[in-house]
Specification:
Largest sheet: none
Shape: globular
Structural class: mainly alpha
CATH superfamily of the largest domain: MFS general substrate transporter like domains
Number of helices: 22
Helix content: over 70%
CATH architecture of the largest domain: Up-down Bundle
CATH topology of the largest domain: Growth Hormone, Chain: A
Order of helices and strands: HHHHHHHHHHHHHHHHHHHHHH
């Protein structure tokens, strides 16, 4: 069947397969938060102790993301992508059948191992299947999960635990995983590198400890699960490990995370600028539902129906993202759209309990459109000039940066809320506290503008399809 398909149809199917796998991982990482109290009652644990199920998942992601590129080169992208889906699905089954906290923690670690491979290797499959001229279209589909997963997770989790068993939060991954494995083996080629670089064990240990410490530090600090001095110690230990890794990477020929990628101007701009942009935007799925529920007094379902506007906005731009980038080029889009997205994020800080729900819905809808445009542009530009032999290393570094930026974004939002609570000596955040936090995090995306300004006007022209002006003759 795959042999009779046109190349464009096959590319579209591969894009959707990768997008669905990423959606499963993104949705699962947020859906459990809503169900924690119900799961805690079912296995006779406190919700606070059960929070370790979330942190262990994030730790597992952080540890195993760096080796995803090497694994794909060694065993083949299709084989590793298939294995990642199977491992993630088995972890989901284990979570659904868990009868005690230790069982749930082990199953979540297994899930994290699968998720750590699924996202970067899935992106690698896409890059090796789709020509650069079609990359914008393909990335527009792959950018959807990162935007709508965090938005859909809380309301879907609330719906499942209200009307069904909490175990179905994990069991819904079973049919998705089975279909994913079938489609991957039908339509994805097992492309692998002819020469596999040696495995960098020391680099793996340093990045694993460093990333896990930073992710865990922001997670426990942001949720108040541990005192901030302990969280700060974790962050400091993580930073030291990553600093040690940078020095290590300069001395070895084949580092697990190849920092030589940062010498590619478009990749460096997209990675650093994208990190700063995602820091601000990553706090939004954390702050907005809390603002609507805690600050404005809405129930979880009403809050979920309003915040779902962001997902609708993200989906609505798929027909426009290609022509926009082709018309204006990556540089103009990234600069202008950063400012627009930052203004929308600041505008959300002006919401009040008396603000009409229709106004909030429309503002989130429009903001979702522009955030999706920015995510697609950043994700596509990241690989515009990366040589084929370095693609696996690029997907690992990009996934690592994205994971860190989201953790930092949520941690920053939580830290701002705790700071406001300490200032007015309260135990419950008010609407004004959320407004302050949103206003502050709206500044973070703006910090990416200088990195986009350094880009050449024709950066990523081969990918965008924008004509490159010929130099004038003297």
């Amino acid at each position: 069947m795959a042999a009779r398909m046109t190349p464009r149809t096959r590319q579209l199917i591969v894009s959707l397969i990768v997008a669905c796998a990423m959606f499963m991982q993104n949705l699962d990482s947020t859906i459990i938060a809503t169900a924690l109290p119900t799961i805690a009652r079912a296995i006779d644990e406190s919700p606070l102790r059960l929070n370790v199920a979330i942190t262990c998942y994030l730790l597992s992601l952080a540890v195993f993301v760096p080796i995803s590129g090497w694994t794909a080169d060694r065993f083949g992208a299709r084989r590793v992508f298939t294995a990642a889906i199977i491992v993630f699905t088995l972890g989901s089954i284990g979570c659904g059948f868990s009868q005690a906290l230790w069982m749930l923690v082990i199953a979540r670690i297994v899930q994290g191992m699968g998720g750590a491979m699924m996202v970067p290797v899935g992106r690698l499959v896409l890059l090796r299947t789709v020509p650069k001229s079609e990359l914008v279209r393909a990335m527009s589909y792959v950018s959807i999960p990162a935007l709508i997963g965090p938005v859909m997770g809380p309301p879907l989790g609330g719906f499942i635990v209200t009307y069904f068993s909490w175990r179905w939060i994990f069991f819904i991954n079973i049919p998705i995983g089975l279909i994913g494995v079938l489609l991957v083996n039908l339509f994805v080629e097992n492309i692998r590198e002819a020469t596999v670089r040696p495995f960098d064990l020391r680099g793996f240990v340093l990045t694993g400890i460093g990333l896990a410490s930073i992710a865990f530090g922001f997670e426990v600090g942001g949720r108040g699960a541990m005192p901030w001095p302990i969280a700060a110690g974790l962050l400091a230990a993580g930073a030291l490990c990553l600093f040690a890794y940078v020095r290590h990477a300069k001395r070895v020929d084949h580092p697990i995370i190849d920092l030589a990628l940062m010498r590619i101007p478009t990749y460096a701009a997209a990675t650093i600028g994208g990190f700063l942009f995602r820091m601000g935007m990553g706090a939004l799925p954390f702050l907005m539902p809390l603002m609507l529920q805690v600050g404005f007094g809405l129930d979880a379902l009403s809050s979920g129906l309003i915040t779902f506007a962001s997902a609708i906005g993200a989906l609505s731009n798929k027909l426009f993202v290609g022509p926009i980038i082709r018309t204006f080029g990556f540089r103009r889009v990234l600069i202008g759209n950063t400012l627009v997205s930052g203004v929308f994020l600041f505008g959300y800080s002006l919401f009040r309990p008396t603000t009409a729900h229709a106004v909030i819905f429309l503002a989130l809808l429009a903001g979702g459109f522009f955030r999706s445009l920015q995510m697609t542009s950043i994700n596509t530009l990241s690989y515009a000039d990366v040589p084929g032999a370095m693609l696996s290393r690029a997907t690992s570094l990009t996934s690592m940066a994205q994971q860190l930026s989201q953790s930092v974004g949520v941690g920053t939002g939580a830290l701002l809320l705790y700071a406001m609570l300490a200032m007015h000596g309260s135990t419950v955040s008010s609407a004004a506290d959320f407004s302050f936090a949103l206003a502050v995090v709206s500044v973070l995306p703006m910090l990416s503008v200088p990195f986009f300004l350094r880009m050449s006007p024709d950066a990523g022209a081969e990918v965008s399809g924008r004509p490159v002006p010929k130099p004038s003759r003297p």
